[in-house]
Amino acid sequence: MKLSNKEILEKANAAVTAGDNEGFLSFCTDDTIWTFVGDETLRGKEAVRQYMDKAYIEPPKFMVENLIAEGDFVAATGKISMKNEEGEPVDYSYCDLWRFKDGKMAELKAFVIETQGF
Questions:
Q1: Which PANTHER family does the record cross-reference, listed alphabetically (predicted)?
Q2: Which domain holds residue 55?
């Protein structure tokens, strides 16, 4: 049975929270593009892998508030908590817009804002 794009994103996020970055990456296209609006753009699975190795010192904690799917897109809103380089937790609110291609995550446009408290 083919998974919906929403189900694919849920499985990919579960892999990240379990510390399985390679499992997450298996849901991405090789030429995936991640744009963090106002910050940086990652091009390709290897760039995302390097980002995850650096940014996810330990698995992030997610609280997904909404997942909205339409066609090739899934929008996700919620909160995420990650450790910074000093090992201190930093909390963010996010809105991610994912574009899917052939059952894989091909593009991310992420709006991320640091907040106080998870």
A1: BLR2505 PROTEIN
A2: 5-115
CB 34 within 8 A of CB 51: yes
Beta carbons of 41 and 33 less than 8 angstroms apart: yes
C-alpha–C-alpha distance, residues 113 and 92, integer Å: 5
Indicate whether 114 pLDDT > 80.
yes
Of the candidates 62, 50, 84, 83, the one whose C-alpha atom is nearest the C-alpha of residue 17 is: 62
Q: Is the pLDDT of residue 116 over 90?
A: no
When divided into structural domains, the chain yields a total of 1
CATH number for the domain that contains residue 21: 3.10.450.50
- Between β-strands 28-36 and 104-115, what pairing exists: parallel, antiparallel or unpaired? parallel
- 4-to-1, 34, 89, 95, 102 alpha-carbon distances in Å: 9, 21, 32, 20, 11
pLDDT by residue (tens digit) across 60-70? 998 999 999 99
Give the separation between CA 26 and CA 17, rounded to whole angstroms: 15
